[in-house]
Every structure is written in C-alpha cells, then in structure tokens.
Design goal:
six-stranded mixed sheet, D-Maltodextrin-Binding Protein, domain 2, single chain, 9 helices, five-stranded mixed sheet, alpha/beta, 3 domains, Arc Repressor Mutant, subunit A
C-alpha cells in the first residue's frame, strides 16, 4: 500500500472535495480519482459516497482514515529516525498522557532533556488508560503516562512521585461550592460527569462504598476541558483529579476521606528504539532514583 496514496486519501477525506484536494496535492483531478478507485479496489470496500459537489466517507472510509493517518505518521517518523546522522539528536517523541498533577514531573524531564538536545520535539496526546495502552500497542506513541492501579507486566516503567488528588469540579453557584471537602453522601443523586476509565471507576466505587449505587452519571469524558464546559453549563459536577489549570467560575473540592492515585510512565519493553528515544529513556532513569523496571 503506497504511503503517497494514503496521504492523498487523507487529503480528500479532509477536503471533502476532489477538485480542491487535487489542487492541494498539485495533481490533476482524473489522476487523483484513479488513485482513489485503485485504493478501493485493493481494499475491496467503498470508501467514499460521491455527491455532485462533495465527497463523503462511508463507515468503512471513516475506519480506514484513522488507520491511514496512523500508517502515514509512522512512516514519517520512521523516515526521520533513519535519517539521523552524526552525534546530534533530532526527531520527535510522542507521549500519551492523562491530565494529572504527575505530568508536571514529566514536563520537567522533557524540559531538562531539551536543554541538552534542543532539536528534539515532543508531542503530548491526551487520553485515558485504555486509549494510551492501545496506542502503545499500535506503535503510534512512544511512552504513556498511566494512572494507577494499572497492569504494568507488559512494560518497563518508572513510578512518578506526585499523586493526583481526586474530588469534584463544581460551579461556583452550586450549593456544593460552599464546602471544603466532599463526602460520598454529599454527591448521591447529583448529576455527575465521570472519566471514561473502568479502572478509575472501580477506585471511585471503592471510595464511595455503599453510596456508589446512588450515584447518577450523566456523561463521561476523556478530556477534563470538555467536562469543565458541561459543569460551566450547570449540567452537573465533574469527578476528576485536581486540575492543573483554572477554569472560570468553577471550583475544585477534594474528597474526604482523601483519594489519591499515583501514575507511572511506561514504554514497551525489549524493543528496538531510535537513538533519540534511547537517550530520553536514559534521561528518565537518571532523573529517577526509584526506577523499577519489569524484568519479565
């Protein structure tokens, strides 16, 4: 499967217009149409619904677009890694991360690494534990920051020092905003926006005890910024870690008894990595005195 054809397919999918896509790719419209038809024939599925002026993806096309984006990105990253010459490090390291206070520790590692290797770039991709582990398996990210408890048997990892304190994000006009701490009985029957992660749901259920069955979830999120918009619209309270930033008209209130969850930074064990990635892993190990690597 030709990477250039995949890139052309992505351009058409984004533009939703073959003429505009052809202009952007600097090829003729008939040539682009032939590439798309050959791609559909190779895959044995219809990728597009062709209209009079626009072109839209089928369900199969939507799925293939995600896979095509992953393949093109991997090809581009591999090309950059293979092109490294001399002693200077370059390229990009992609980290899948949750929205936790522990990310400040990861950012500190990135900052100190870039002071020495300024040509290296980093990309931070937010997600929950399930999404990050899937991306690690697919090879679309290099490292992941996961909230504990989590199974680390498949990874090498470093446990981060700072723990995330859990509580609720509430609108300033909500009656709960007057409290200094939140007990499980305080939020029974209250519309609740929760993180889309079953492991963390289990920890929250353990904290809630017998009140867990009285909780009223109305939405789930994987990015707190989106949950905060719902709270600002007074659609409920958001159960979350203490935010790393301030949200207008919202207040964070911690749980009582205190609920804190740690984080680990993980990577796939026993696999070949680029010189840049190897250097960053060495840097992580130097930053941590309590490194604990999987030996299986």
């Amino acid at each position: 499967m030709d990477i250039k054809v995949l890139a052309a397919f992505i351009t058409v999918a984004n533009e939703e217009n073959i003429t505009h896509a052809a202009e952007q790719l600097h090829i003729t419209q008939p040539a682009l149409s032939r590439q798309l038809m050959r791609l559909e024939a190779e895959l044995g599925v219809r990728l597009f619904i062709r209209g009079k002026h626009t072109i839209q993806l089928t369900e199969e096309g939507l799925l293939f677009k995600r896979r095509a984006q992953e393949m093109v990105r991997l090809a581009e990253r591999t090309k950059l890694e293979l092109a490294q010459t001399g002693t200077a490090l370059s390229g990009e390291i992609v980290i899948g991360c949750n929205e936790s206070q522990a990310m400040r520790e990861v950012v500190s590692m990135i900052s100190s690494f870039r002071q020495v290797h300024g040509a290296v770039q980093f990309q931070l991709q937010s997600g929950n534990n399930v999404e990050i582990k899937d991306q690690l398996e697919q090879g679309t990210i290099d490292l992941g920051v996961l909230v504990e408890p989590v199974d680390t048997s498949s990874y090498a990892y470093v446990r981060l020092i700072e723990k995330g304190q859990w509580g609720i994000l509430v609108h300033n006009e909500d009656s709960l905003a007057k409290r200094n701490v939140i007990h499980s009985e305080d939020i029974t029957g209250v519309p609740m926006i929760t993180i889309a992660d079953e492991v963390i749901h289990h920890e929250l259920a353990m904290w809630s005890g017998e009140n867990a069955v009285k909780m009223v979830p109305v939405a789930h999120y994987n990015l707190l910024a989106n949950a905060a918009l719902l709270v600002q619209a007074k659609e409920g309270i958001a159960v979350c870690q203490r935010p790393a930033c301030h949200y207008e008209n919202l207040r964070f209130i911690p749980f009582e008894p205190k609920l804190e969850l740690g984080s680990v930074i993980v990577w796939k064990d026993n696999q070949k990595v680029s010189r840049t990635m190897a250097a960053f892993l060495d840097h992580i190990k130097k930053c941590k005195n309590d490194i604990k690597l999987n030996e299986t």
